[in-house]
Design brief:
Helices cover 32% and strands 28% of the residues. The chain is α+β, with helices and mostly antiparallel strands.
Length: 217
């Protein structure tokens, strides 16, 4: 519907887009309504000779109405979005693929656990600014930071999560299309923030096996 949005390659991206469209069109409708009313009121209540301005104390029913309607909209939006956010943040599907991503000024440090499947062992494989994952596989990403707050952001996955010093935050995704996708930092983190750019490589089975062979020796 909106071609200026980056292509969605995530299994949960469609639901995120649905919420975005709902909020977008809702706010667009409110904007048009308010603009039309402003123009209408400018015309109806413009200065006219012989007509004096009248002071009004307001309208209690009208104030209740414009308080209740936004409240109802927010409650509906919360109810509609709860299943999507539960899927993204809480009910992650099982995965055997885990990787650790650490933000630091001004790079992404990416660690793969190696053949033993455990982090912080001698066979760990470390690389910067290149996150390689297999297509159509659930991936767990353990996020942390070495210094300040960074934000792990992959627009094509509809995924954004802050990386905090001293915290280990797990996010997940399942990419459905091979390719190379931007992985910027979305949190102002210092003078080099604009250059903190990594890449997500979603590889087919053969391509990923060939790439991962370098740290499985």
């Amino acid at each position: 519907m909106m071609r200026w949005l980056p292509e969605n390659i995530s299994t949960f991206g469609g639901e995120i887009d649905g919420l975005f469209y709902f909020i977008y069109y809702l706010t667009a409708g409110v904007f048009v309504l308010v603009t039309v009313l402003m123009v209408l009121f400018l015309f109806l209540y413009r200065h006219r000779e012989g007509r004096r301005a009248v002071y009004t104390h307001g309208s209690t029913p009208l104030e209740i109405t414009w308080t209740v309607i936004p409240t109802i909209i927010l409650v509906v939006l919360s109810l509609v979005s709860v299943s999507t956010w539960a899927k993204v943040k809480i009910d992650a599907p099982p995965s055997e693929f885990e990787v650790r991503v650490t933000g630091k000024q001004f790079n992404w440090e990416i660690v793969y656990p190696g053949p033993d499947g455990r982090f912080d062992t001698p066979d760990d494989f470390k690389i910067e600014n290149e996150l390689h994952v297999p297509v159509n596989k659930v991936v767990y990403v353990h996020l942390t930071s070495n210094d300040v707050i960074h934000s792990f952001f992959v627009p094509n996955l509809r995924l954004k999560q802050d990386a905090l010093p001293g915290r280990n935050i797990r996010v997940w995704f399942e990419a459905t299309k091979t390719g190379k996708y931007e992985l910027p930092c979305a949190e102002l983190c210092g003078f080099g923030h604009s250059g903190m750019l990594g890449w997500l490589y979603v590889d087919g089975p053969e391509a990923y096996s060939a790439w991962s062979a370098q740290f499985q020796r």
